[in-house]
Design goal:
It is a single chain. It contains 18 helices and 14 strands. It is an alpha/beta fold and 484 residues long. Among the domains are: 41 residues; 102 residues, no CATH class. Helix 5 packs antiparallel against helix 8 and helix 14 runs parallel beside helix 15. The termini are far apart. Pfam families: F-box-like.
Length: 484
C-alpha cells in the first residue's frame, strides 16, 4: 500500500482540526498517521486536559523529576515510562496561566488534601519544570498568552530565546512584569497579532515592544474584564503612535475614556475597524475620522456607544462601497436612526453581513436594504418594543431578501420576550419553501436574559423548527443567551 508523504498528511489533517472525532479516528490507522494527528491535538496548551498535563510530567527529564521528588511532590506520572512521543515538542501555543494554575493545581489537589499555600508552592515547582522543558524542547512557539504576574522569568530558561524569536501572536495583560516586556522586545520582532488587556497603567516597555515589530497586522486593546478603567485618556493615544501602518485589523475597547481618535487616520491599510465605548461622548472625536479614506476597509464594527450619525454617514459615503460587513449598536444614541440606515442602502451596496436597528415605523428602510444590498448573506435584526415585531421582520425577510442564508433575531431589552406565534412561524417557513432557488436557512435567536420566557420556551415553536430541520429547510438553529 502506497503511503502518503508527511507533508500531504499534514495538509489533509489541518482541515480536520475542528473535527476532533474524525481526527481521533486517524490516530488509530498507523504510527505515522498517529504522530501527524497527535501533533494537532497537542498544539494548543489551552486545550489540554488534566490528563494531558499528567502526560507532560511523564515527559520531564530525570533531573526535573528528581526536583519534584525532593520537594515531596508524588505523582504517578513521575514513575511512568517515557511516553510514546515527546509530546512537549508538539506544543506551539503556550498559555502561562494554563500551565501555572488552571490544570496543574487541579492535578495536584486531586491527590490529597493539602493547605492552600503548600498547594500553591507545589504548583509553582511543577509549573517551572514544565516551562523549562517546553523552552528546551519546542522549536518555535507561534502563540503566547501571559495573564499572570510571575515571580520567575521563563525567558531566561535555556532555549527560550530561540523558541520565542519567531513568535507571531501575543496576548497579555499590561500589569505583568515590565522586565518581561523588555526581554520580549529584545527577542520578538515578528509579532503579527497583539492583544493587550489594560489596567490602570500601561508601562513604556509595552510601547517599546510594539515599536520593534516589523510586520504587526492585528492590534486589539481592551480593559481587563473586572476593571472599569477610565484614566487612560492621555496614555492610549501615545501608545497608539507606536503602531505601524502595516495594521490591517484594529480593535479598541476604550470603556469610559474620552480619547482623541485622530491616530486611526494613520492606519491607511485597515481592513477591519472595531470601536467599543460606553458613552457616546467618548466618540465625539470621530469627527476627525469621518472624511478619512480607508481603501481596503471591509469590516466596520461599532459596539455600545456610537458616534453622531452625521459623522458615520460621511464615513460611509467615503468608505461604504468596499465594506462587506457592518455591525452597529447604539445608532445615533437613540436606539436607531433612519438616516443612517438609509445611508447604508445608498453607500454600501456590496455588504454581505449587517447588524443594525430598525424601528417599527421604518419598515420601508428594511425593504430598501434588501433591494439595495443584493449580496447580503446575513442580517441581524432587533425586534420588539420600539423596533420591528418578529412577524414584520420575518415577513419582510422572506419577501424581499435575495441571497441571504442567515437570519439573527434579538431583543435589545432583557425583560422583553419573543411574541412570535406558532402559526406565524409556520407561515414564514411555508413561504420560504416557495422561494426559487430554495436555500437552507440558518436561524439564530438571541435573548438578553436566559431566564426570560422566549422563543425556545414555546413548545409549539420548537416542534415547527424540528419539522423544518428534518425537511432540510433549516440548516442551523440556535438560541443564544446573553446575560448582562
Amino acid at each position: 500500500m502506497t503511503q502518503l508523504p508527511v507533508d500531504c498528511l499534514n495538509e489533509i489533517f489541518e482541515h480536520l482540526k475542528d473535527d476532533k472525532h474524525t481526527l481521533y479516528s486517524c490516530v488509530l490507522v498507523n504510527r505515522l498517521w498517529c504522530e501527524v494527528s497527535v501533533r494537532i491535538f497537542w498544539r494548543d496548551i489551552r486545550d489540554y486536559s488534566t490528563s494531558n498535563f499528567s502526560t507532560l510530567i511523564a515527559c520531564l527529564p530525570n533531573e526535573s523529576k528528581k526536583i519534584l521528588y525532593d520537594n515531596g511532590i508524588i505523582i504517578s506520572a513521575l514513575t511512568s515510562k517515557f511516553p510514546t512521543f515527546n509530546y512537549a515538542s508538539f506544543c506551539k501555543i503556550l498559555s502561562i496561566s494554563r500551565v501555572y494554575y488552571n490544570k496543574i493545581e487541579k492535578l495536584l489537589n486531586s491527590k490529597k488534601n493539602i493547605s492552600r499555600q503548600k498547594l500553591r508552592n507545589k504548583t509553582n515547582i511543577v509549573s517551572q519544570e514544565i516551562l523549562k522543558m517546553l523552552m528546551n524542547q519546542v522549536t518555535t512557539f507561534n502563540g503566547l498568552d501571559i495573564f499572570l504576574r510571575l515571580n520567575i522569568n521563563f525567558i531566561l530558561y535555556p532555549g527560550a530565546k530561540d523558541c520565542l524569536k519567531n513568535l507571531t501572536k501575543l496576548r497579555c495583560r499590561s500589569d505583568i512584569s515590565t522586565e518581561l516586556f523588555y526581554q520580549l522586545s529584545q527577542i520578538c520582532h515578528n509579532i503579527r497579532s497583539f492583544t493587550l488587556e489594560y489596567r490602570e497603567t500601561i508601562p513604556n516597555e509595552i510601547a517599546d515592544l510594539i515599536s520593534v515589530q516589523r510586520n504587526l497586522k492585528c492590534f486589539n486593546m481592551k480593559p481587563y474584564p473586572i476593571s472599569a478603567v477610565n484614566t487612560l485618556t492621555n496614555v492610549i493615544p501615545s501608545l497608539m503612535s507606536k503602531l505601524p501602518n502595516t495594521l490591517i485589523k484594529f480593535k479598541l475597547d476604550g470603556r469610559y475614556n474620552r480619547l482623541s481618535l485622530l491616530f486611526i487616520t494613520n492606519f491607511s491599510n485597515l481592513q477591519e475597524l472595531k470601536l467599543s465605548f460606553e458613552l457616546n461622548e467618548c466618540l465625539g472625536d470621530f469627527e476627525k475620522v469621518q472624511y478619512t479614506l480607508f481603501p481596503q476597509l471591509q469590516i466596520l464594527k461599532i459596539e455600545k456607544a456610537c458616534p453622531k450619525y452625521e459623522f458615520l454617514i460621511n464615513f460611509l459615503e467615503i468608505n461604504g462601497n468596499n465594506l462587506k460587513e457592518i455591525y452597529l449598536s447604539d445608532i445615533g444614541g437613540n436606539y436607531g436612526n433612519n438616516s443612517l440606515n438609509s445611508a447604508i442602502t445608498t453607500f454600501c451596496p456590496n455588504l454581505r453581513k449587517l447588524s443594525t436597528r430598525i424601528k417599527y415605523n421604518e419598515l420601508e428602510t428594511l425593504k430598501m436594504i434588501f433591494n439595495s444590498c443584493k449580496d447580503l448573506a446575513s442580517i441581524k435584526i432587533c425586534c420588539g418594543g420600539i423596533f420591528l415585531s418578529e412577524k414584520e421582520a420575518l415577513e419582510t425577510f422572506v419577501e424581499y431578501s435575495q441571497n441571504i442564508y442567515e437570519l439573527i433575531l434579538y431583543h435589545l431589552f432583557g425583560l422583553v420576550h419573543f411574541e412570535l406565534l406558532p402559526e406565524e412561524l409556520e407561515s414564514f417557513f411555508k413561504n420560504w419553501i416557495d422561494r426559487k432557488p430554495l436555500k437552507s436557512l440558518s436561524l439564530i435567536i438571541v435573548k438578553r436574559n436566559a431566564y426570560v420566557n422566549s422563543f425556545d420556551k414555546n413548545h409549539e415553536n420548537i416542534e415547527i423548527i424540528n419539522k423544518y430541520i428534518k425537511l432540510g429547510v433549516i440548516k442551523k438553529f440556535k438560541v443564544v443567551s446573553l446575560i448582562l
